[in-house]
């Protein structure tokens, strides 16, 4: 598991640096610019569900097929996933280029932020096709067991993005000083370069090289298998992203300072959970391989090992953030009101992270064995009733603000975490796989043994 996890951690850490550098540099423009970036990212995350659904389902099935030695099928699944995601990404790009202001108004972006929102949403959103390709290609490559390739690429992408950010924001090295527009262009260029290299890496990820002319081949049976796993995953992810988007719109009602504080805290939370997230992603790949290879007992134990390690790491990280978070917030902004708002959430973050680890580790393991409908049901119930519904009641209606909203997010993570933990303990899907394997073994005709006389 560690062989899979450490490159994923490095990749996530580099992505965190990318986000932190973005936030830090954008904060030099204005806190309003930070609020727009945070708002836009929530929107982009919501739209990404449309292609990450296919990518996630394909990734799990690729790992299972490779575990059961069905390598050609894994290759076909990878090609179909990339083609489908690219098509969805193209449609989203055209919509975001055409209607940035209308979309921002519907989601209640404050009126004075609309000019900045129009620029950022149209440029970065216009490159959604690149985001779709990057997400799917990285997922496919990681689930073949190659977690180092995306890691190295993330390193290069970070270097390019930070260099261009600095150049466009401050007008360094002879570049024009374009402010938030420059940040958007920098994001687009770095993603374009990363996509080119990921395509090359993908072509050599299987035993047989992937040819471009094969990319439009469709195997309906395999695609149905992908969708069987993917559609509940898609609803699960949609629940999370859209609930977060709605919660962010609640925060926008509180004001632009609250939006900026939430964006800064999101950066700190990402740092806090990186190790835990990498372990959760690694154990999903591992459990899917073991499940595909019919090694169900090893798959069962792997989940607990990952959970134990993850809980220790995220709790330690959350404690460090609790101790020094106020100083970290001061790196992003000098506004004492925003710092105070963010600091009021540090103790709650210490409670949030273990629940998030429990939920993600056990949920990923259920997804890895195809039990995606259960995680979907927990998401529908908990995210909408607890995370979203109660956030409005406590945060807006009763006036508890950000603290009330965070309390609801904590309750949601622990409720889902307990439910998926109990499901894994029951071993329902694992026992079904064992029974199917036993039945298959009992009906198999023994191979005659030739005896020399």
From TrEMBL:
One Gene Ontology cellular component annotation held by this UniProt entry: plasma membrane
Signal peptide coordinates: none
Subcellular location: Cell membrane
Family annotation (Pfam families): MatE
Membrane topology of this protein: Multi-pass membrane protein
Keyword field contains Membrane: yes
InterPro entries with a match to the protein in the record: MATE_fam (IPR002528), MdtK-like (IPR048279), YsiQ (IPR047135)
UniProt entry keywords in alphabetical sequence: Cell membrane, Membrane, Transmembrane, Transmembrane helix, Transport
Transmembrane segments: 43-64, 76-99, 119-140, 152-175, 181-206, 226-253, 273-291, 303-325, 331-352, 373-394, 400-422
MF terms in GO: antiporter activity; xenobiotic transmembrane transporter activity
Superkingdom, taxonomy of origin: Bacteria
NCBIfam families: matE
Protein name: MATE family efflux transporter
Gene source species: Paenibacillus selenitireducens
């Amino acid at each position: 598991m560690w062989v899979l996890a450490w490159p994923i951690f490095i990749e996530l850490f580099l992505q965190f640096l990318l986000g932190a550098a973005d936030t830090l540099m954008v904060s030099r423009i204005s806190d309003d610019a930070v609020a727009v970036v945070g708002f836009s990212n929530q929107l982009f995350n919501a739209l990404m569900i449309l292609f990450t659904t296919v990518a996630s389902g394909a990734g799990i099935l690729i790992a299972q097929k490779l575990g059961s030695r069905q390598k050609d099928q894994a290759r076909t699944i990878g090609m179909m996933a990339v083609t489908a995601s690219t098509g969805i990404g193209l449609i989203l790009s055209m919509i975001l280029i055409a209607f940035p202001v209308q979309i921002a108004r519907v989601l209640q972006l404050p009126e004075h932020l609309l000019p900045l929102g129009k620029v950022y949403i149209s440029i970065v959103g216009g490159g959604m096709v690149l985001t779709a390709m990057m997400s799917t290609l990285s997922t496919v490559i990681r689930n073949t067991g190659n977690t180092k390739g995306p890691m190295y690429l993330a390193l290069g992408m970070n270097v390019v993005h930070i260099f261009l950010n600095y150049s466009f924001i401050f007008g360094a090295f002879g570049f024009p000083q374009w402010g938030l527009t420059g940040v958007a262009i920098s994001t687009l260029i770095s993603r374009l370069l990363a996509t080119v290299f990921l395509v090359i890496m993908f072509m050599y990820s299987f035993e047989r090289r992937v040819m471009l002319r094969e990319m439009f081949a469709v195997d309906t049976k395999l695609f149905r298998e992908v969708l069987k796993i993917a559609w509940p995953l898609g609803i699960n992810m949609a629940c999370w992203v859209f609930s977060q988007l709605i919660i962010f719109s609640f925060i926008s009602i509180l004001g632009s300072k609250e939006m900026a504080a939430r964006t800064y805290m999101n950066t700190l939370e990402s740092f806090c959970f990186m190790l835990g997230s990498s372990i959760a992603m690694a154990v999903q790949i591992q459990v899917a391989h073991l499940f595909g290879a019919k090694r169900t007992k090893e798959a069962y134990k792997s989940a607990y090992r990952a959970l134990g390690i993850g809980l220790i790491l995220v709790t330690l990280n959350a404690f460090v953030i609790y101790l020094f978070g106020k100083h970290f917030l001061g790196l992003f902004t000098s506004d004492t009101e925003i710092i105070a708002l963010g600091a009021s959430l540090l103790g709650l973050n210490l409670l949030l992270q273990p629940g998030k680890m429990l939920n993600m580790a056990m949920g990923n393991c259920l997804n890895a064995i195809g039990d995606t409908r259960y995680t979907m049901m927990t998401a529908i119930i908990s995210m909408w009733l607890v995370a979203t519904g109660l956030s409005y009641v406590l945060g807006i209606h009763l006036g508890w603000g950000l603290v009330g909203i965070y309390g609801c997010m904590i309750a949601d993570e622990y409720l889902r975490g307990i439910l998926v933990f109990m499901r894994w303990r029951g071993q329902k899907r694992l026992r079904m796989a064992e029974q199917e394997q036993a039945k298959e073994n009992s009906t198999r005709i023994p191979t005659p043994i030739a005896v020399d006389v």
